[in-house]
Amino acid sequence: MPTSCRRAPAALGQSKTMKISDLYASGKRVFSFEFFPPKTESGAAALARAIRDLKELRPDFVSVTYGAGGSTRDRTVDLVTRIQREEGICAMAHLTAVATTRGQMATLIDRLLEAGIENMIPLRGDPPADAQDFIQPPGGFLYASELVAFIRERHGDRLCLAGAGYPEGHPQCRDLDQDMANLVTKVRAGVDFIITQLFFDNRHYFDFVARARKAGITIPIVPGIMPITDTAQIDRITRMCGATLPPLLRAELDRRKDDPAASMQLGLAQATAQCIGLLAGGAPGIHFYTLNQSPATRMILTALRIANLG
Fold it and tell me: From the CA atom positions of the chain, what is the Rg in Å?
């Protein structure tokens, strides 16, 4: 069972939690996974397999997302609670400002605290699929920094808060200087560490870290990595989040477009090489976007540990 979150022996169903920021402060390399709440029975079965398989790798923590527009709020609370209580893995809940008033957010955070969840990542969130732009809900939040400040005002340092960072710029703010200014505002509001959006060229990460340090940001900046397992899928994801594929990687994926197995092999090699380069360059760990699948992440993290990098 991971040392970051053990079940308290005095009360079944209660978890002794640790702030994730303390893991990064310890100087150890931190490895974590992201899951999302499934919508179907088959999806639930796939997630259960992924959790079972990846639990063996002793992740330091896992995070659980919201659906677009906050559509899976209750499932997120249920899943993050179950992972921490039943699986004994430290869990971090996503919080999104979409379609949520301040009162609703306060109630949601109280529910998580009652369940023993003290690590959260406040986000503005994506608008619903039928909306092009984010609309501030009445009595709600316009920016993630406002949500962070709201939580700090109510709960002080009781909670560990992560924040999102965008090495290639936020999809709705491609001006890198302005995007960095927005990140500074969020960090000053009370973020403890940053997890980046996915990227496929390590130069984006190291340039982003250098710009953040120049702007006065000193907290850990954790690279988010998504192994390519399906070319069409990664094309959809990159269009949505604004990430880019290096030309050579794009060309090699195109060469393998009719061979899914070869595409996955390339994706595994690419992600493994990325992780090696990131860790060698001083990254404090890796956050894997798993898409609720275990094989790719399992192979990559196992390889890193065999090479004494994990």
Answer: 19
First to last CA, the chain: 17
3-state SS assignment for residue 36: coil
Domain with 301 in it: what CATH number? 3.20.20.220
Active site residues: 34
Which structural domain range is residue 116 located in? Answer: 5-306
The pair of structure tokens assigned to 158 is 């009781």
pTM for the structure as a whole: 0.91
Number of domains comprising the chain: 1
Burial of 118 (0-12, 13-18, 19+ CB in 10 A): buried
Side-chain half-sphere CA neighbours of 127 within 13 A: 11
Burial class (CB in 10 A: 0-12, 13-18, 19+), 106: middle
Measured CA distances, 105 to 13, 101, 136, 151, 259 (Å): 25, 6, 14, 9, 46
- Which positions ≥6 away from 222 have C-beta within 8 Å? 24, 30, 32, 193, 194, 195, 196, 283, 284, 285, 286, 287
d(CA 237, CA 158): 34
pLDDT digits (tens, 9 = 90+) for 80-131: 999 999 999 999 999 998 878 999 999 999 999 999 999 999 998 876 655 5
Query: Left (φ > 0), alpha (ψ -120 to 50) or beta: where does 309 sit?
Result: alpha
Taken in order 41, 44, 50, 53, the sign of the CA dihedral is: negative
Indicate whether 4 pLDDT > 50.
Answer: no
